[in-house]
Amino acid sequence: MPRLFVALDLPDALAGAFADLREDAPDAPGLSYTDPGDAHVTVKFLGDTPEDDVDEAVDALERAVDAADAGPFPVEVAGLGAFPDEEYIRVVWVGIDEGAEELVRLHEAVERETVALGFDPEEHEFTPHVTLARMSDARGKEDVRRFLRETDPELGRFEASELRLKASELDRDGPTYRTVARFPL
């Protein structure tokens, strides 16, 4: 049963800037960093999905992309933040400046179509972002908070031209992703 999510992948051209930001980030206990080649904006997490339901999900995503009518659009990847907040850090993220409105519109359309199929609705407001790191240990929190306050990265710009339905396979070395379907914008 594949573990699925809908994503906007960062282009290879931004992987170097993402890797440079990782190098500048603290080496704090419990902080695990995203591989620059896997960096993406998760538009919707679908979770474990029976093989029999994958085709229906693909059809729903095609409808959602058509309904959102976002077309190709520019995206600027810049700024830092943390979820749920800087007091209790679980995720350190890089923000989306330009292109955030289009990503919200795509998320809302994807949410409508996938919830109608029986996928779980989102529990939190959608904030377009790229996960830089996940934090499982609070011992390095002060180093991470200082990094968040003192760093204001601008990773670059690109044109978003497609969403992807991706499958994630987890093993002890971290996630491995494969593209299941592509949806031109």
TrEMBL record:
Q: Motif HXTX 2: list the residue ranges.
A: 129-132
Recorded superkingdom: Archaea
UniProt short sequence motif HXTX 1, positions renumbered to this chain:
40-43
Q: What is its EC number?
A: 3.1.4.58
A molecular function (GO) held by this record is: 2',3'-cyclic-nucleotide 3'-phosphodiesterase activity
Catalyses which reaction?
a 3'-end 2',3'-cyclophospho-ribonucleotide-RNA + H2O = a 3'-end 2'-phospho-ribonucleotide-RNA + H(+)
Q: Which UniProt keywords apply?
A: Hydrolase
Cite the InterPro entries for this sequence. Cyclic_Pdiesterase, RNA_CPDase
Q: Offer one Pfam family short name for this entry.
A: 2_5_RNA_ligase2
Top EC class of this enzyme: hydrolase
Where do the catalytic residues lie? H40 (proton donor), H129 (proton acceptor)
Recorded hits in HAMAP family, A to Z, give: RNA_CPDase
Identify the PANTHER family for this entry: RNA 2',3'-CYCLIC PHOSPHODIESTERASE
Summarizing the function annotation, the protein's role is: Hydrolyzes RNA 2',3'-cyclic phosphodiester to an RNA 2'-phosphomonoester.
Per the record, the similarity remark reads: Belongs to the 2H phosphoesterase superfamily. ThpR family.
Q: Indicate what this protein is called per its UniProt record.
A: RNA 2',3'-cyclic phosphodiesterase
Q: What high-level taxonomic lineage is stated for the organism?
A: Archaea, Methanobacteriati, Methanobacteriota, Stenosarchaea group, Halobacteria
Q: Which gene encodes it?
A: thpR
